[in-house]
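Appendix B: complex inputs.
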Amino acid sequence: METKQLFQLRPIDWRWFIVSYCFLVLFHLAPSFLIGGSKNSFQELVSFLLWIGIGTPIICAIIAWWSRGITILEPGLAAALYAFTLLGIVKPYLIFGSGYRSVAEQVVLLLSMFVAGCLGAAFGEWIQMRKEKKQVA
Amino acid sequence: MFPKTDSPEFAPNFLWQIILLTVIVLALVLFSDKLFKSDLSSMAVETPRIVLFPWVIAGGHTIENGLLAFSGKPADVVNGKDQVRALAALIVVLVLLPTIFFLRWRRWKLAAEPSIHATSWSLSRVFYSLCGALVIYISVASLPMAVFGDVIHNRLREAQAVQSSRDEIINELNFMGFDLFQYYILPKEAGGGNHCFDGYALPDSASKTAEATYVVTPNGQTVGIHAESIRYPFSWVEVKVDSLGRLGSWTYGGKFI
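Resulting structure:
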């Protein structure tokens, strides 16, 4: 029954969308910046993809776990917006090629980040459900 | 309207505070180049102005000193500003952040309701979480850095040792070239080859050294020398010596490539 609730249609909670985006900036971008000390540390494609591909779903999972109730779409959308912000900060012309191919690659990246964020958040919700079940038991 | 947030999940004004904080962080990252413009623009290795890893600052200085030494200049003394930066980073990373994180964690564990959803989100909670995140990131990053640093260090040493062995063999081959030329120009009565390399044999002391074993193959007006490394099996150097004692057609095998 609870598993079905995950996929119920409901309006997006914009407050959690904003908070998710802020958390991604604060818990992913800010620590990376403070540790690495430079926004230019991730200009190589592989390191950039590893950095956001691993870090963002983890943060989304934590956000979903921290939030009350079910929060899956909000971190997913925030992850896509966050990836868009990062593309602006980390100078995408150094990562991607130029022209239409570059635009297509960046669109694919944003969609992938949305999916990765949703998957991460779903994992976080699953952990939350398990914990709640344990507490009830 | 929103059952998830109608309950006090967020403290009053939390949204505005966190948005403001995010904007500040984004501005800091975006304009960090202009805000913290390095005063050491002449340096080949520019260390970032804000960095919580003191070893990044130290690494930058080590590389810089290496480059200075390479260009024949004396090593640069670390200035007071960078010393303070490194010390501040050490205090923040190893003392302040773990202390705040663990004290908060202890308080949370001792609370009557140690549920993550029991309290509403406030800026202080974000701050404590950020301290925790930084402690975790730094701990997680330190281990691979230490392991890979050691691996890279060993590989570098190994590469240097292979290079030194190869240089030593090349040096010995050069001496053999002199000896061969001497043999070539001397008449037979003086123990030479009379403008021919045939009959040349390496002295016992030269045919096997600490670095390699040498095999000489005279062929009229040229000689081929094959040096098989003792320290690195299956690694070798081959060279040809002509009638003027010049060494050419160098070929390398194994680790010497």
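Residues 185-256 of chain B form one domain.
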